[in-house]
Design a protein that fits this description.
There is one protein chain. This protein is mainly α. The chain is built from 15 helices and no strands. It has a single domain, classed as Ammonium transporter AmtB like domains (Ammonium transporter fold, Orthogonal Bundle). α1 runs antiparallel to α2 and α4 packs antiparallel against α13.
Amino acid sequence: MTFNTGDTAWILVSAALVLLMTPGLAFFYGGMVRGKNVLGMLAQNFVTMGVVSVLWITGVYSLAFSGKGAFIGDLHQFGLNHIWQQATGFETLTIPPLVFCAFQLMFAIITPSLITGGTADRLKFGSWVAFSGIWLVVVYAPIAHWVFSPSGWLFKKGALDFAGGTVVHANAGAAALAIILVIGKRKGWPKERMRPHNVPFVLLGAGLLWFGWFGFNAGSALGANTLSAFAFVNTNTATGAALLAWILVEKIRDGHATTLGAASGAVAGLVAITPACGFVSPMGSIAIGFAAGAICALAVGLKNKFGFDDALDVVGVHLVGGVLGALLIGFFATKMTNSAGANGVLYHGGWSLLGKQAIAVLAVVVYSFVVTYILAQLFSKTVGLRVSEADEVAGLDLSQHAETAYENTSYSDGSRFTSNFTSAQR
C-alpha cells in the first residue's frame, strides 16, 4: 500500500505533541505540590516515559492492538515483530504501521502519569516504577483493546471514544481513586493547608498541555483531513468554554476567580472534549466545555465531603471530566461531523448511543478501579507503596532522590527542607 506523506507527517508531529504533554503534566502537577516534593513529582512523570516506552515496544502495543480477541490482543507483534503489518482492523490506514505504534505509545505514557496527581507526596519512587509497568499491562492494555481496537467488545458494541476519554482519563481517574483509598491521606490533611508552591509552574504546565492536546485529539483522526480540523477546533473551543465556566463558578462561590482555577478549568475542558472532539459540532463543544468547567469545579469538593485525599484533583477533573465527556457524546454526537460516528439524542438519534456510552463508562471505571485496587493492595502488603512518615515529612525530593529543587530553605507554602537529611533519618 502507498502511504500518504502528508498524513504520515501530521501523525508524527502529533505523536511529538502528545509526548510533550507528559512534561507539561509534570509541571502542572509539580507547581501544585509543596516545594519539598516538586522533584518527586517530576521524577515520577519522567520515569513513566521510560518505563512505558520500553514495555510498549516489547509487548504492550501488541496486546492492545494485535489479534481478534474481544477482551485482549495477542503477541503477534511482540517486540514489534511483523510491524510491517497494520494493527488489526486498521488495514486501510494511510500511515505506516510503525507511525501508528509511535502515536499510540504517547497515549500509553500519559495515562499512568495522570495517576500521580492523586497520589502526590506519598509514593515510593521505586514502587511507582514497578507499579506503573504492571498497571500498563493488566489495566491499560485491555481497556485500550476494548475501546480503540476494532476487535474490542466495546468498539463492536458501538461505544464512541475519539481520543481517550474512557481509555485515558476515566481509566486514570478510577485508578487514582483506588490507590488513594489504599495508601491513605497525606500527613496533616485536611487540617493542614497544603498550598501550591509555584502557581506559574501550574500555568506553564496547563499551557503545554493545551498545546500538546491538539496532537492528542486532532491526531486521533489518523490523517490530515477535515475530521482532524473538527477535532482541533472543538478541542480549543471546549477548553476556552471550560476555563470560563470554572472561574465563573469560583466567582459566584468564593467571590473571586483564581489563576489556579483557570488552569484547572482548561484541563477539565480538554479532558471532557477528548472522547467527543471527532463526533460533535463546534457548538456542541461549547456546551460540553461549559458543562465540564462548571461540574468539575464542583466535583473537586467531593474529596472533602467523602474524606479521600485526591491531592491534585485527578478524580474531580479526569474521572468526572472523562465520564462526562463520554456520556455527553450520547446527546451531542452528529454524523455531520463524522459520518462514521452516530447521531445523539439532540440530533434525532434516540437514546441508543447514550446507553452504549454508559456501558463503556461503567465497564472501564469498574475494571480499572477493581484491578488497580487489588494491585495496590498487593504492593502495599509486600514492597510497600507509601513512603515512611519520616520520609513524607522530609519530602520526596530528599528522601527519594537526595536532591532539592531550590537552594532556599523555605517556601511560600510554609514547607521546609533540611539539607543535612541523612540515610539514618530514612
